[in-house]
Amino acid sequence: MKIELLKPHTHAGRDYLPGAVIDLDKDAAEWLIASGIAKPATKPSKPSEV
Fold it and tell me: How close are the terminal C-alpha atoms of the chain, in Å?
């Protein structure tokens, strides 16, 4: 599931900036969305690292 980060986040040892679109498994993606860290992706993008 693709999500867009709303806050900085580290996943799999990589740091991502807000606005980065990453592909995660459904459970992880839903947890980040419920936590206010991400939203469902609405734009195509490649991951942005810090």
Answer: 22
**Is the whole model's pTM more than 0.90, yes or no?**
no
How many Å apart are CA 36 and CA 3, to the nearest integer? Answer: 12
Domain ranges of the chain: 2-40
Using alpha carbons only, give the angle 26, 6, 10 rounded to the nearest 5 degrees: 70
- What is the mean predicted confidence (pLDDT) over 7-20? 95
Gap between the Cα atoms of 14 and 8, Å rounded? 11
pLDDT band at 21 (very low <50, low <70, confident <90, very high): very high
The rounded distance, in Å, linking the Cα atoms of 34 and 50 is 24
